[in-house]
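Structure ticket #2291
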Amino acid sequence: MKLLTNILEFNQQFVEEKAYEQYRTTKFPDKKLVILTCMDTRLVELLPKSMNVKNGDIKIVKNAGALVSHPFGSIMRSLLVAVYELQADEVLVVGHHDCGMSALDSHSLLDKIKSRGVTEDTLNTVNYSGIDLHDWLKGFNSVQESVAHSVDMIKQHPLMDKKIPVHGLVISPETGKLDLVVDGYGNEE
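Resolution: structure written out below.
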């Protein structure tokens, strides 16, 4: 059986049994916080539990590496929507140790892309269109520096409310321990 079939069958039972009722909440975060974090599988349940947040408490935005790599990309747009439309009063960037984006090798990734059928002509078209794939697909060497960079991108964004505290943390995907990188209230580590 295919994964999608399993998901849809489970979902039908979930709805029929009204299992959703325990998750009912509003679209506004009770703790008035938006978190940008990594899509790492180890953080799906660990991150909320380690921070004492539950369904309805926060807005959460995820991508590879918890990176704000473009000031007008979808991540920054999501953070602005969370602040201005969904009543988030603080932003928290949470990176993690042992991240897949740490020291990501763009050459190796492009080789994997080609092995799945993307042609050299397609890659050339992207490059000739002004996209430096090696730059776009690069990782980072230090999770602390990456988190600090994302915090700075958010704080310095021309559309971000300057009164919004933007914090940075690094979590251990093994224990859930949080290490402070940037205290958005003004005390930097």
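Closing remark: The longest helix spans residues 3-16.
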